[in-house]
Amino acid sequence: MSSPPTNADAARRAAIVRPRPVAPTTLELAAYRAVTWAARPAAGLILRLRERRGKEDPDRKSERLGIPGLARPSGHVVWVHAASVGEANSVLPLVAALAERRPGITVLLTTGTVTSARSVARQLPAGTIHQYVPLDAPQLVARFLSHWQPSLAVFTEQEIWPNLIMETRARGIPLALVNARMSENSFARWQKRPALAKALFSSFSIVLAQSEAFAGRFAALGAEAARTAGNLKIDAPAPPVNSVEMAKLEAALGGRPRFVAASTHPGEEIIIAAAHRLLAARTPGFVTIIAPRHPERGPGLADTLKSQGFAVALRSQGEWPSTGTDIYIADTIGELGTFYAATPVAFIGGSLIARGGQNPIEAVRHNAAVLTGPHWTNFVEAYEALLARGGAAEVQSAEDIAARVAGLLADAAALETMRLEAQAALAELGGALERTLQALLPMLPASDEAARVAT
After folding, report:
1. Fewest C-beta in 10 Å: which of 119, 192, 297, 338?
2. What is the pTM of this model?
3. pLDDT tens-digit map of 249-264
4. Pair 146, 156: CB distance under 8 Å
């Protein structure tokens, strides 16, 4: 339980959330605002096109236009925005902690994708509201903010939408950027637009970065209070396991040797399939599970692999791997924890191609030994720690993957050592949740103030 607020707490909050000066109107900001304002009439068409591709929820499209799907609760509202599934999962423990530490405050969590909405629906803390974030047009953002009237806005990772940020700033709502990251390529692009970067990044009262390098980049671009807090994904709980589906999967696999390639991108699955061919030649009965980063790619991926002679089962069609299945495509949402728990070795995608890699932490939490390609800059601290301790291994090709998987499955002691070193590496990197919470709490209305407003 948190301590009662003091006068010192109030003074600290006043200093942190002091009104931001009016942002300079750069030519780029003015042009962006004009274009997005003029594009507002096309928003409905854009949403309909996205709906046809499965990228919008047909029952909740109005939320993307800034039209609320729910009434605003009484009292203070803290708005937390996360882009998609990974960001939402990492911030959910923070959402729960904020609500617990500040009774009387309602947390509004927004995301931008259908997959993220479905994922958080199963995990949303009691009393927390989910809405889709509006498209970044001035009129839509204004409608959203006028309805919800947040006392604090918390963005995650690299969600830099100019209208969302500048309209929030213009209304005097303090902004925080948490679990912030910025790649070298993004930093180089922002450096070419120094006025725009300063206008946007100076709008944040605080930037809590995943690493010192990231904090330095934000500070160089104009963030006035950038510091390191660590990676919230390291402190996030393991993704859930569905025990019923797990039992069905184990029965379908029947003890067959296997590994999972998770969060894969186009171009990687062909390499994984080639690795499977090598593994199956060495180990009769071997089965590979592929969970593509974007599940909607499942049917097309199945067709591609079938054309190469592989026997494929597709989870989204209700299929289970049979004794003759080579590759099982797990093209569903919210089941990655089950597949990690069912496999001793996991390759983490986005890393054999230049995408910067996906999150290895969830696999480690389920005690899967982690393999990664050479491109892992999106999770540099985690991978540096894992690789330094031997808690992960880097692979470059199908031959590398096959050799590593076969070696780990044949050597129980080596597999267990790799698992233990991975757990130790993450333990050394933990603590981001508490550091982030302690930085945000002074920005919130005190418990007694929130309770008074709520009543």
Report:
1. 192
2. 0.81
3. 999 999 999 999 999 9
4. no
